[in-house]
Amino acid sequence: MTHEKTFSLAVDREAKIVIKGTAVKNNRQVSIDFEFLIKEKHDKFFRAPIGLNHPKYWKLQSLTPEKSQLLQLVYSGLSKKHLDESVKEFKQFFGAGYVFSDAINVAKKVKTLRGIRLTDMSRRILMAG
Asked: Per-residue confidence of the chain (129 residues) as pLDDT tens digits?
């Protein structure tokens, strides 16, 4: 099962969380995996937050899949509130009685995720517009 949730963020950016769940047969356990995508105002399609031209791209390639996914989350601009909301909706589709697990324990590792960070100049532009 796949659940997608899109959020409108500041500075003309949209971010999408894609949660994929796989239920283990004869068990009430669901393994979940995350994907984080962004779309700027001028983009037609969603893309990964860290692409080939991003300064952190080569660091991303050397990380484990778990740490790579966390880095993508940080650079997406999503907050912990956005992540929690998406996971809650995903769990409601399965109903009560299921145990959910993800390989990287995203919720525990991003306790202080604040979302997109704005500089003072960006705030002034937003307020003027």
From this structure: 899 999 998 778 899 999 998 887 777 888 888 999 999 889 999 999 988 888 888 888 888 888 888 888 888 888 888 888 998 898 888 777 888 877 666 666 665 555 555 445 444 544 554
Q: Is 118 helix (H, G, I), strand (E, B) or coil?
A: coil
Count of domains observed in the chain:
1
DSSP conformation letters of 16-68: EEEEEEEEPTTSSEEEEEEEEEEEETT-SS-B-SS-TTSTTHHHHHHS-HHHH
Beta pairing, strands 2-9 & 29-40: unpaired
Looking up tokens 């893309």 gives: 47
Report the alpha-carbon distance of residue 74 to residue 97 in Å, rounded.
Answer: 31
- Structural domain for 34, as ranges: 2-128
